[in-house]
Write a structure and sequence with these properties.
Number of domains: 2
Shape: globular
CATH architecture of the largest domain: 3-Layer(aba) Sandwich
Low-confidence stretches: none
Mean pLDDT: 96
CATH topology of the largest domain: Aminopeptidase
Largest sheet: 8 strands, mixed
Strand order of the largest sheet: 1-2-8-3-9-16-10-15
Order of helices and strands: HHEEEEEEEHEHEEEHEEHEHHEHEEEH
Strand content: 15-25%
Number of helices: 10
């Protein structure tokens, strides 16, 4: 196939649009500005000839590239999220292309303190001769996940320009609010009408992720005994101090994000707020085995109970909420999904490898909603930070992988 890559141009245009989601919002999408990118994507899809492209009230972009084969091929969806992380500003992004990368550290001119150090980014060792896109150091880049958005758009563009490439019906889904954990809350799977899906939201070239954490959130509410501090001797039981004791009893050298890797799960306090009378601690619990969540939750509650024994006039309550589950539980039932992805990566001249996500993706929840959905590489690195970067050549390989993948599904139908 003779590719006419537009992925880098699209990407640079998309990252200039501020689509930061808002974890404190009760609206959907959480920030109205996410729809601005959605409108642009719809227009580009319509201009390509995709007749049903549209943006719904919740900020989702839906579109269909019709089948051009006589075979009965499963309908495949490609999905990426439009929002960027609330952790770092995405306003006024200034992308910079570092052409023909030679292995040096990359100083970002907008903030001299922001330097992408080669020795701290081992993936840069595979980028010699490639073209690296960064920001100027004052914002994040937004390659998570506008790289995925641009790759899907460019793949569709190339498929339309090359009708001799046979494929089944392809669905396109761009979501809001993935970064605040609400990426598929309002998705209409019936309207989408897809049998299988792939998210383009991964990292290193060639990586295929078919496993995520299973995840719960655990909210612990401590109710203390409040008294006027001048009259409090022997009576006051501060919920703030009780909560602090609970936090202090957490393991220091295991079961925390900063001490775990690979398949190890953790217990992580993410927020604490309160008064003398009532304090709320929010924990996230993670494990690759769903049964491991219950074990960690039981262990955490044992710590709480041991602390509470000293405070006879205080009490606690626990609320556990399911966040997402390990998508491998679903994907193992559909081995062709990952097998075909590996073949597509190989056809692009890249060595594929399977990995796991120490986190979740839209694909985690989609898989359990009835749409099995592994995650493919998009090429972005250093997510959520001002040191975020992506390689143009890696994005191009992601486009090739998508095009190869739809052909493989058609060939095997």
């Amino acid at each position: 196939m003779n590719y006419n890559f537009t992925v880098s141009e699209r990407f640079i245009n998309y990252v200039k649009i501020d689509t930061q989601s808002d974890p404190n919002s009760n609206t959907y999408p959480s920030s109205e500005k996410q729809k601005e990118l959605g409108k642009i994507l719809v227009k580009e899809l319509l201009d390509m000839g995709i007749q049903d492209a549209h943006l719904d009230d919740f900020g989702y972009v839906y579109a269909t590239l019709p089948s051009n084969t006589t075979k009965k091929v499963p309908t495949i969806c490609f999905c990426a999220h439009m929002d960027t992380s609330p952790d770092t500003t995405g306003t006024d992004v200034k992308p910079i292309i570092h052409k023909n990368y030679k292995g040096e550290d990359l100083a970002l001119p907008g903030d001299p303190s922001q330097i992408i150090i080669h020795s701290e980014n081992p993936e840069l060792g595979d980028q010699i001769g490639n073209d690296i896109i960064t920001t100027d150091g004052t914002t994040l880049l937004g390659a998570d996940d506008k790289a995925g958005v641009a790759e899907i758009m460019d793949a569709v563009y190339n498929l339309i320009k090359n009708p001799e490439i046979k494929h089944g019906t392809i669905k396109i889904l761009f979501t809001p609010d993935e970064e605040v954990g609400k990426g598929v809350d309002k998705v209409d799977l019936k309207k989408l009408g897809s049998e299988f899906a792939y998210t383009l939201d991964g990292e290193t070239l060639g990586k295929i992720e078919d496993e995520t954490f299973s995840a719960d959130s655990m909210t612990v509410t401590i109710t203390g005994k409040n008294m006027h501090p001048g009259l409090a001797k022997g009576k006051l039981e501060s919920s703030i101090k009780i909560a602090s004791e609970i936090i202090a009893k957490l393991p220091k050298d295991y079961l925390s994000p900063e001490t775990t890797s690979d398949r190890q799960g953790f217990i992580h306090p993410v927020s604490i707020h309160g008064t003398t009378e009532e304090t709320v601690i929010s924990f996230i619990i993670r494990d690759f085995e769903t049964r491991g969540l219950a074990e960690k939750e039981k262990y955490l509650e044992s710590i709480i109970k041991s602390v509470m024994l000293k405070y006879k006039n205080s009490k606690y309550s626990v609320k556990i909420t399911e966040s997402y589950r390990n998508m491998k539980e679903i994907l193992d039932k559909y081995p062709d999904l990952v097998k075909f992805a590996e073949e597509a990566v190989e056809r692009a001249g890249v060595k594929p490898y399977r990995d796991k996500v120490r986190g979740g993706t839209d694909g985690s929840r989609l898989s359990f909603m009835g749409l099995p959905c592994p995650n493919l590489f998009a090429g972005s690195h250093a997510f959520h930070s001002k040191l975020e970067w992506v390689s143009i050549q890696d994005m191009q390989k992601a486009v090739e992988t998508i095009v190869n993948l739809v052909q493989i599904w058609e060939e095997n139908s």
